[in-house]
């Protein structure tokens, strides 16, 4: 409502897109061309389709088409009006309803928040829990937090895993590494082949516990080569 900063509009579009939402309605923004301004597009960071779908209207009433449950954002408690709660319990309750109502979130202007008249139109209010000594949230930050909470109430998105799990080194390659390390340790004088004790079996157990990946094994082979090269240089005549 009455947003005055183009950057906030762009950042809001970005916040919505990453949570899978695209229905943005601006009520009496300060600049009529805010959706096309350079700052808006820069802060949208690629979420241009949200801006392209966005509507600009003159009143909150015009923005409510298709909205069945309207939630306002209010940091300051009101003496009169709809109940206020934290976002998570409210959204979880709405998501569990059958049928689930279509949700609309109303954000006030950056400077003045929501007017009492607009608050009274809402079915409920949410207040984002913040540190009691400092609760100042940028408009786009508030949109991001509430969009995240609503998406989580709807089931969320799966965490993107690696497309290909790392490849573990096979036992033959591990034994090749240990043979290489044994010779390198002899070359630098760390291992006495006449009295090896249990050094190599212990190293064998160590690498087995580590579960070396193939790339890691190659790194250790490279270290062994560097050790042998350094030992050879030390033994070479000046």
UniProtKB/TrEMBL annotation:
Q: State its Enzyme Commission number(s).
A: 2.1.1.200
The segment(s) forming the tRNA/rRNA methyltransferase SpoU type domain are: 2-148
Give the catalysed reaction(s), semicolon-separated: uridine(32) in tRNA + S-adenosyl-L-methionine = 2'-O-methyluridine(32) in tRNA + S-adenosyl-L-homocysteine + H(+); cytidine(32) in tRNA + S-adenosyl-L-methionine = 2'-O-methylcytidine(32) in tRNA + S-adenosyl-L-homocysteine + H(+)
Q: Give the main EC class.
A: transferase
Carries keyword Transferase? yes
Per the record, its GO cellular-component terms are:
cytosol
Q: Where found, per UniProt?
A: Cytoplasm
Q: Which GO terms describe its biological process?
A: tRNA nucleoside ribose methylation
Signal sequence coordinates: none
> Which InterPro entries does this chain map to?
Alpha/beta_knot_MTases, RNA_MeTrfase_TrmJ/LasT, SpoU_MeTrfase, tRNA_m1G_MTases_N
Q: What is its main location?
A: cytoplasm
Q: Which UniProt keywords apply?
A: Cytoplasm, Methyltransferase, S-adenosyl-L-methionine, Transferase, tRNA processing
Q: Name one Pfam family in it.
A: SpoU_methylase
One MF annotation (Gene Ontology) recorded for this entry: tRNA (cytidine(32)/uridine(32)-2'-O)-methyltransferase activity
Asked whether the UniProt record includes Nuclease among its keywords, one would answer no
Q: Which residues cross the membrane?
A: none
What the record says about family reads:
Belongs to the class IV-like SAM-binding methyltransferase superfamily. RNA methyltransferase TrmH family.
- What subunit structure does UniProt give? Homodimer.
Tell me, in a sentence or two, what this protein's role is: Catalyzes the formation of 2'O-methylated cytidine (Cm32) or 2'O-methylated uridine (Um32) at position 32 in tRNA.
Name this protein carries in UniProt: tRNA (cytidine/uridine-2'-O-)-methyltransferase TrmJ
Q: What is the lineage of its organism?
A: Bacteria, Pseudomonadati, Pseudomonadota, Betaproteobacteria, Burkholderiales
Q: Which gene encodes it?
A: trmJ
């Amino acid at each position: 409502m009455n947003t005055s900063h183009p950057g906030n509009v762009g950042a809001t579009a970005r916040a919505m897109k990453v949570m899978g939402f695209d229905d943005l309605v601006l009520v009496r923004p300060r600049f009529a061309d805010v959706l096309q301004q350079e700052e808006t597009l820069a802060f949208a960071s690629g979420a241009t389709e949200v801006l392209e779908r966005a509507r600009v209207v003159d009143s909150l009433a015009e923005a409510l088409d298709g909205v069945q449950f309207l939630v306002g954002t209010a940091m300051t408690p009101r003496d009169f009006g709809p109940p206020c709660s934290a976002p998570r319990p409210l959204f979880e309750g709405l998501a569990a309803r059958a049928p689930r109502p279509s949700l609309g979130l109303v954000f006030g202007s950056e400077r003045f928040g929501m007017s009492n008249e607009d608050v009274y139109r809402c079915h409920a209010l949410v207040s984002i829990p913040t540190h009691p000594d400092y609760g100042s949230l940028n408009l786009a930050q508030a949109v991001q937090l509430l969009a995240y909470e609503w998406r989580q109430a709807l089931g969320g998105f799966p965490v993107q895993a690696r497309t290909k799990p790392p490849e573990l080194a096979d036992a033959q390659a591990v034994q090749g590494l240990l043979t290489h390390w044994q010779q390198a340790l002899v070359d630098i004088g760390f291992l006495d082949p006449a009295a090896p004790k249990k050094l190599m079996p212990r190293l064998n157990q160590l690498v087995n516990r580590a579960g070396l990946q193939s790339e890691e094994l190659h790194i250790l082979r490279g270290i062994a080569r560097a050790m042998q090269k350094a030992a050879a240089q030390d033994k070479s005549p000046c």
